[in-house]
Structure formats: C-alpha cells, structure tokens
Amino acid sequence: MNEHDEAEWTKNEEQTEDHEETNTSLEEQTSNPLDDTEEIPMLEETKIHEKEKVTPTNTNTAENTHAYEITENPGYLEGKEQDHQDIVSLIETAEAELADLRMRKDLIESDFPQLLESYDRFILNEEPISTIGKTSLIEYFTYELLKPLNDIGLERSNSAYDTWKTRHFSINYTLNGQNELVFSFVLPTIDQRYQVESMSLLNVSPETMEINVQDDRVLSLIRHWSVDRVFSAGQITIFNHKLNQLLAHARTLGFTVNQTLLDNTKPLRLNLQSEFELTNEVLDDIFIVAMKNPSYDMEKINETTYQVRLDKGQSLTITTNEKDQTVLSISSGDYPRSVIDFFINYEFLVPLMVRKS
C-alpha cells in the first residue's frame, strides 16, 4: 500500500466511527426523552413530589349522606298491600266455599239420623251455614219425611224450590217462627174454574219430635167435597190414605203424632163440637135416610139427645147443650176409621158439621 492509499483508508475509518457515534447518541435520546438533557416544564399545582401520599378529598357530609339514602315508594307499597289483602280475602272466600261444599257433600250422603243432627246444628242452634246449604238440608230432610209418596210419583217441582209434587196433589214446605216445618197441600179441583188455596195441614217439630195436624183444615176438606163440590170423594179418600202413610212413616222415624181427625189406624171414639145450630130440617133429613136404609136407625133419647145407629156397629149421638151448640159423639165400633172416612161413608150426616152458610 502506498502512502496515498493508506491516507485514504485512515480517513474512511474515521468517518465510519463518527457515523456510529452519531447513531448511538440518537438512540439514547429516543429511548430516554426525559433524561436530564431536557425537562418538560410542569405547573406548580400539578406536581407530584416523590414519596408524597395521595389521599382523596373526603367530601361526604351528613347532608350528602341523607340525600343519597334509599327510600320506599308509598304508592307502590299501598298497591302491594291492597293486592295482599285481596289475595287473603280470596283465600278466605275459597276456603269458606270449600268448607261449604264439604258440608253439602256430607249432607247429601246423610241418612235421616244424620240429617236430624244437622237440622239441630244449623236450624235450631243456628250454626253458620250458607243459603244453599240450608236449602239443601231442608230439602233432604223433607224428602225423608215424604218417602211414602214415591209410589204416586213424588218429585221436585220445576217451578219452586220448596215444593214437591205427586200425581194427586202437591206439597209446599216452609219454616215457621219456631223453626218447625209446616207442610201445606194443594189438591187439583175437579172443576178448573175454581181454585182452592193451599191447606197448612202438618206442623213437624224436629226439636220435640212431634207432629201436629191442624184438624180445622181436615173439616175444610169435607166442606170442599160435600158442600162446594170442588173435590171428589175419591180425591180426598186417596189424600187421607197417603197422609196416614206419612204419619205412620214419621212414627218409625221417632216422631210422636198427636191425635188427629185424619188417623185411620184405630177405631174412632171422638167428640166433636159443631159450629152450627141443630135444626129440625137437618134432623128430618137424617131421619128420612135412616128410615130408608134397613141397616140404619134413628132414635130420640130425650129432648136434647138423638142417636143414629149405623151398620158395622157404628153410631152417632147428637146432643144439644145449654148454649144450643151441637155436640157429636162418633163411634166406629171395631172398624178403624178417620173422620174423613166416616163422613164419606155417611154423607147424610155431614150437615151436622159443615154446611153452606
């Protein structure tokens, strides 16, 4: 290598070293921009000194705490409470209805002794019961009493909840002030131009287990047949027979049936006082019939007493008392008869008891 080439190589070497130093300096400046070669100015209030603890400023006060408390919504709570009350009410109603259904189920499955016990609880002692339950109880109870009428078509009426009907008459029932069952009967008239009001005939007391027959209504039956001619003899004969079956059935259920003009289960021994005065016209009519029938006889015992002897050992004694009232003593001998049976068989004696006013 000559001197000229050596000098050239030395110059290039120096330029390469200078270039590398320059690159190194640029890299150091790029990687440490905040070195002590130059600091970025900073506002005094934003400077954070070394090792200084940063603590957030506590701005909570009693006033701020109250402002951010969780509060309730009165309107919503009122609605919620109302919903609660409604649900409780619905539950109570549903429970009451369910209890009533269970009670009615028990009633419909009950025999007469159980119905009698229920009658005592809910009717006599007035334990709470729904209207439907009470109506059902009375219906089932009356059916047990009216069972002997099944052979003449006993069934519920389609027009009234408190009425039974048969082929020959209908029966209405109701409770009176003493919680007794009152049975009223309606017979169809043979002439549809005339109607007869229902007859309140039987008073049934489940409390005392007694049945009373309103005998004045029995006499009205005789009047409607013999005087008014709105009933036939066959009608009241069937009616009397079925009523006696009812009374006999009631005795088997434990009821006591007080003495009645309807009773045809034993011989008749009865004194009746008529509301009509004894007249010569009535006596003459009886005498004429008695003389025409060889099985009858009529005798004057004294000035105030007459005796009419009938067939089968039966008789009727007619007496006028000091008040000019007519008293009848009826004997059917050994023949079981009711008053209705007696007068139907001896219609000529009816004017002694009932007649046209």
Automatic annotation (TrEMBL):
Residues 23-34 have a biased composition (Polar residues). Keywords: Coiled coil. Residues 1-14 have a biased composition (Basic and acidic residues). Residues 77-111 form a coiled coil. It comes from the Bacteria. This is Uncharacterized protein. Residues 1-38 are annotated as: Disordered.
